[in-house]
Amino acid sequence: MSALWQRPAWRSGVIYACAVALIALVGALDFLTGAAVRMPSLYFFPLILAGWHLGMKGAWVAAALTTWVWLSVMRANEPLSRTHRSWPSMPASQRWVS
Questions:
Q1: How far is the C-alpha of 94 from the C-alpha of 98, rounded, in Å?
Q2: In this predicted model, what pLDDT tens digit does every residue of 72-83 receive, in sequence order?
Q3: In Å, what is the CA distance from 95 to each residue of 35, 53, 88?
């Protein structure tokens, strides 16, 4: 009876692949929209998928990957978002305001 409730081994790999593909898709959309449109809430969907189906370990791996993708996109779009002031001369209170 307990064998009915166990997941097949291949299912975890498929869910990991789906979570990574969703993270890459959201990262690509975030990059393509540029600094004008921010969509950090879309990064939660792959995290929810990983956490729900893969448990705590899968959620931590997905969170680390999501953080890396988000920071990379922010860094890649940074030069595009500077229009009238240089970054070091900007007051600290305005650096993270979009």
A1: 8
A2: 888 888 764 455
A3: 13, 37, 9
